[in-house]
Design brief:
This protein is mainly beta. Helix content is 13%, strand content 42%.
Length: 243
Amino acid sequence: MKTTIVLFFCSVVLFMSSCVQDETLSNDTYLMGSVKLFDDGTNPASAWGVTVTVEGLSPEISAVTDNDGNFILKNVPVGKFNLIYSKEGYGTFILTDVENRGKDTVSITPSLGQVSSAEIQVLLYEISEDTLFFSVLLKNDADKYHPKFVRYFFYKDTTNFKNFSYLSYSKYSPLITIDQRYVEYKLLKYDLWNMGFASGETVYLIAYGDSYYSNDYLDPITEKRVFPNLNFNAPEALPIVVP
């Protein structure tokens, strides 16, 4: 009888010890990573103070980067998550499908830039035979040592343009570097055709200042690329008839 009691007591102790150990291991899970920061060009900035948040968890799990841009998110469950990177003056960036297997390191170190300081004062275009010339004049200065950056967006539907979201774009251009206040960008009519615009169709053009590190990401719901660093101080859209 005594032997049975002793064995039962030992079993209870081992079971409780196992539960405590499992809880400890669960609480020790983490996800660590780092980030690099820049101004709206290519100059490095302090990587301190970026808030990194695991999307969709309650209670919220977040961490703030140290001076070297490193962070540790504690008690993150095992699974795949989106990480939200935010800091005042920077467009919010989302890194999707980050996997945590218990004690993991984020494999990607994002390079994030500040919101663009490039303000577009004038937007013009002209057509010469089969070529379209787009030009912008900046409100602020730019040179080869302090360039600015611009991105063009093309729209088909602007029925309610005053309340539109830039994310209703049909196509967008690569990042255009500006090393003076005025810059010209050209497209052949075949380029517009390849974008899906038909000859004779009216297309609307807008240009926004952007950053070298534009913090862009693909929205998994809309399947559109988001550009968080755009400077929306820009002229209204121009209607263009595709040649």
